[in-house]
Amino acid sequence: MSGLAIDVSVTPEYCAEESSDAELRYVFSYTVTVHNQSPHSVQLMARYWKITQGSGDSQEVRGKGVVGQQPLIGPGQRFRYTSRAILQTPVGVMEGGYTLLNTYTQRAFEVPVAPFRLAVPRQLH
Fold first, then answer.
1. What does the alpha-carbon distance between residue 106 and residue 84 come to, in Å, rounded to a whole number?
2. What pLDDT does 3 receive?
3. Closest to 100 (Cα-Cα) out of 113, 89, 91, 111
4. Which residues form the domain of 57?
5. pLDDT tens digits, one per residue of 29-62
6. How many secondary structure helices (H) and strands (E) does the chain include?
7. What CATH number should be reported for the domain holding residue 32?
8. CA distance readout (Å), 100 to 32, 34, 64, 88, 124
């Protein structure tokens, strides 16, 4: 256990102008806020996402950092970024986590991201 208090919140949004029912292309943006509530700086080293389509098909995405960065987040600071997911169904679920480094102890630890729903608003579908 890291003992560090890291809060992650996600706000998804449907991108109607980039999506197409005819092409089975549903684009979602999601804004993630990582709030470091601990007394030590942390660095976001890697990400992991599991994206599950409404059909049940899923894919996993792993990579260094987020949006081309491995941000250092100081005590009490927040790091916010926006990324995208493209689904083939109008509804899906994303979940995952981040690997962070405690810069004080130089130990890596995992922070899970609870599942969140990606869905076309009913009035649009």
1. 31
2. 60
3. 111
4. 6-115
5. 999 999 999 999 999 999 999 999 999 999 999 9
6. 0, 8
7. 2.60.40.1470
8. 15, 11, 11, 31, 38
